[in-house]
Structure formats: C-alpha cells, structure tokens
C-alpha cells in the first residue's frame, strides 16, 4: 500500500512490513517515508490550507458526509483489515468503524455551528466582534489501539474547522489508516487536504514539529512520547492536544447494583483485550461486597473466548506485540509473588508466536504492586477492597494520571459528590463504556490536555480573533 501526499499515491525506495499479531503472518509493505516526504507533505497541506480555509461550512460538511457514506459502505472490508493488523475481534472492529464514523457525522454538523460573539463595548463609538478561524495545518500522530477512530477523532474536527491535515499512523496499524485516506480521496478531498505518511516516527515528526507552517499537533499515545512532542512543539509555539496514558480506577460502593457493576467491569476492562487508554486498571470494591463481586465477575470472565479475531465467537484477541505481552505477564507475576491470589486466568499461551493472555482476575492486591502503579494494557483485573469511601477516592486519585474513572452506586447524592471528587476528565457513573462522539473526551494531569469529540472537540482546531471596531 502507498501513502498519499498532495492527493498523489507516493512510493519510497525503502519500505517496512506490517504483520498480523495473531501469528506474525506478513500482511503488507508500506513506504518508509523520510524527511523529504515529510517536508513535501507540509508544503502540500499548507498550499491546500490557503484554499480550504475559504470554503463554506456547508461545503466542508458535504465533503465529510460523502466520506462518511463511503466508510459506511466499506465497513466490512475496513473491519477485516483492522482485525488482521491489530488483532481485535471482528465484531469490535466493526463497532470501531461505526464509532470512528460517528465523529465524521458529528463534526459534519458542528462545522456549521462555529459561532462568534458580539460583546457590548465600553464606548458608544466602538463594537467588539469575536470570530473563530481555523488554526492552520494540523499534524496528527496516532496509536495502534484504535486504528480508525484515533484518526477520525482528529481529522474530522480539523477539516470541519477549515484546517488541512498531516497524519502519521502507528507503524503497527497503517493499513486501515491508509484505506481511510483513500476513501477520503474518493469522496472528493482536494489535493493536500489529507496527507498520510508512514515511516520513522521521530524523523517525520521532527520535520513537522520544527516547521512553523504546522500550527497544531494532535497526539494520542504514551505520556512519555506526549511530553517529548510537547517540548518539541514549544519552539514554534504550536497549539497542542494530547491524549495520553490512563490509570483508571473502578470503584464499587456497597449499595451498587452488582449486575450493573460486573457488566461495567467487563465492558471497561476487556474491550480490545484491555488495550484502551480508558480501560479500568485498578478495582476498589467495598469490603462488604468484594466476595460476591469477584465471584460474579469470575463467571462472566471465564465465559470470554480468547482467539483469532476473525472467528465470530472470539471476545478477546491477542495483544499487539511481544513487548505488550511481556509487560502483562510481568504484572501478573509481580502481583502473585507479592501475595495476590489468582482467581482465574494468568497463563499466557506462549507455545507459538502469538500474544494471547487469558482474561485474568487477581484478588488481595495492594496499591504498591506493578498492576496498580503502571498501566497494564492487558486483560487483567486487580481487585482490592476498601472500608470507607473517602479513602477509596484518595487512593483512586493517588496517581499522576487522570483520564477515566468508574464509579458504581445507586445513591444519587454519592454519585454526584464522589464523581466531583475524582480528579479525572471522564467519569463512567454506572457506565463502563462512556466514549461518544458528542461528548468531550480527555484527561486531567499527565493524561494530557484538550478534548476530542463534543462541541469542545472543534474548538481545539479554532483560533479566536477579536476585532475592535471603531465607528
Ligand atoms: P504506544 O505505547 O501506544 O505505542 P507511543 O507513544 O509509543 O504509544 O506511540 C504512539 C504514536 O507515537 C505512534 O504513531 C508512534 O509511531 C509515535 N511515536 C513513538 N515515538 C515517537 C517519537 N519519539 N517521536 C514522534 N512520534 C513517536
């Protein structure tokens, strides 16, 4: 597969291979773009910006709607590509295409609602006008866990606002991303509106971040790389949105509806084999219900089928690669060595080159174990108990991260006061799957800055201009 710069299909001398995480089967080769291509892409996006910023909101909306329709028409093909390169079950991959596309339809509408303001002036012969304008060329650097949605979440609001885009998808999952751009071109994207490059991340991003024509960075990935890119954006003072790591607490109060809590735990923990940044990572369950909660969860978890994502029965696919697999095993081993009890799972199938981990529950974990201090990014539920709510909230907040938190209770007053006390950008209140295109997604603290989705999502791609009008 080839990349796209200025609407053209581009090849490079060197390429790199993409493999299926299930068995290391070769899937495709993609271009290994370097400095030259990265620079050409900036030039193309910059030129295209000078046209695209003058289009009307209705024109931008119409393009996004055409792209939406083509993605919907190609759902099965895109989902299969995603399952092959990423490993997630086909039903989840189809779900992701619909979810990714929901950002396109949402921002096709939001494009028309970029409102300005008039503010009463303090002198009779003055008027204060506030306008919103596109920020300019946007660089989007995305991870492998949601190969489609992480792209549309950035590209759709950028295009709706009047920006043009440079994309660098994750090296593990470039195929879905390239196909999405091909469909955008089929939908009539003008040359240079959406450019996509695959290749060495640092080489490409260094060119983009040092170029003052690139006015905005939108990044999803690890906190470590996010901080690095934030520093590199400082010299040209780019606008930045960062969606980084999480360490989500999952708190179950004594009056929780246990069925809801268990369903929420399964939804928040096992999607994408536990490889989402809002996956629940630390389970705090009131001591009075910790046993029934664990038993109920165990029977649900043991029913989950691990296997090839292309098999319609599969609930949990492989982890993305060897490094991810080893990290999860290290977390389980560390917990067991330090006194946690294995309730179910634990054994990785290391007999071949695939990266499967059986869904695992650990109980009697302590706050200092690796599975409680680092983001596991795998299908592991570490359970600890608490006696009073204040200490549960304190422990939940005791982390540098602040993306998503989950709280289960039937008491509405506690639901509200405790969610207000959680230092997190997203609270799933009796809800294990809070993401939605119309809601602002993003974190506090070292989980990042800025929001994706919702009315807030387009603001990230807009500059505010104040015009002081003397009459
Ligand atoms: P993950 O742990 O999810 O792979 P990363 O932060 O390593 O998260 O990767 C997210 C995205 O950032 C990918 O597209 C990756 O290629 C890119 N990336 C990784 N390292 C760098 C870097 N040093 N500079 C720029 N981009 C990077």
TrEMBL record:
Keyword terms, alphabetized: Oxidoreductase
GO BP annotations, alphabetical order: aldehyde metabolic process; gamma-aminobutyric acid catabolic process
Superkingdom to which the source organism belongs: Bacteria
Domain Aldehyde dehydrogenase: 13-467
InterPro entries reported for this sequence: Ald_DH/histidinol_DH, Ald_DH_C, Ald_DH_CS_CYS, Ald_DH_N, Aldehyde_DH_dom, Aldehyde_DH_NAD(P), Aldehyde_DH_Superfamily, Succ_semiAld_DH
Active site: 243, 277
Gene3D superfamilies: Aldehyde Dehydrogenase, Chain A, domain 1, Aldehyde Dehydrogenase, Chain A, domain 2
GO function terms (MF aspect): succinate-semialdehyde dehydrogenase (NAD+) activity
Classification via PANTHER family: SUCCINATE-SEMIALDEHYDE DEHYDROGENASE, MITOCHONDRIAL (PTHR43353)
Protein name per UniProt: Aldehyde dehydrogenase
